[in-house]
Amino acid sequence: METVNETALIEGAKNGDRASQEAIVRLYERRVYSLILRMVGNREDARDILQETMVKALTSINRYDGSYPFLSWLFKIGANKSIDFLRRRKIEFKMFAYEDEDARIDDVPDAGATVAETLADRIDWAIVERCMESLEPRYRAVLFLRYRDDLSYQEIARVLSMPMGTVKILLHRGRIELKKQVMRELK
């Protein structure tokens, strides 16, 4: 199988080559769509936002400087478009909210290794998926980028335009909230 030369596609797209632009869309649309869908929770809205994201990326591709991965740049555009959409819909989306009474660290029991092993045997990953969908968009976004797309904390901070400390807090609280949700499902 031939490896796609991302750099050549980007340069072609910068020079207005339609085939390169279409190849970029085909290459990245699924992953960007997955992020957007996780953030907005609706397939139709996610498709619309994906289209806006790709149009924005291709019309502003000359601003991409190559100092970080192209996919991270696309994720950032998609995340920003999703946040704009959620704000327009007046859905509460406070990325920098540190106070969350439902996600207090001391409210979650400390599970030992034997409990974790027992839970791992009982967890149906469909339950985890369903519980992920019920999380607040800010938690879904960081968990999705970290565990599905394997981005570093720094890359997540860049994609979502937030401080690294906020990423760490949202990941921590998101994991706690996800654990609570899964535990409720397993009872």
Overall description:
The chain is mostly helical and 187 residues long. Helices cover 70% and strands 0% of the residues. It folds into two domains: 6-88, Rna Polymerase Sigma Factor, Chain: A, CATH 1.10.1740.10; 101-186, Arc Repressor Mutant, subunit A (Orthogonal Bundle), CATH 1.10.10.10. Helix 3 (43-59) crosses helix 4 (70-88) and helix 6 packs across helix 9. It is elongated. The protein starts with 5 loop residues before the first helix and ends with a helix.
Name a few traits of the molecule.
187 residues; mainly alpha; Rna Polymerase Sigma Factor, Chain: A; Arc Repressor Mutant, subunit A; 2 domains; 9 helices
Structure in a nutshell:
The chain is mainly alpha-helical. It has helices at about 5-15, 20-40, 45-60, 70-90, 115-120, 125-135, 135-150, 155-160, 165-185.
By CATH, the topology of the largest domain is: Arc Repressor Mutant, subunit A
Largest sheet, if any? none
Rg calculated over all Cα atoms: 18 Å
> How many helical stretches?
9
The strand count comes to 0
| CATH evolutionary superfamily of the largest domain | Winged helix-like DNA-binding domain superfamily/Winged helix DNA-binding domain
Low-pLDDT windows of residues: 90-121
CATH architecture of the largest domain: Orthogonal Bundle
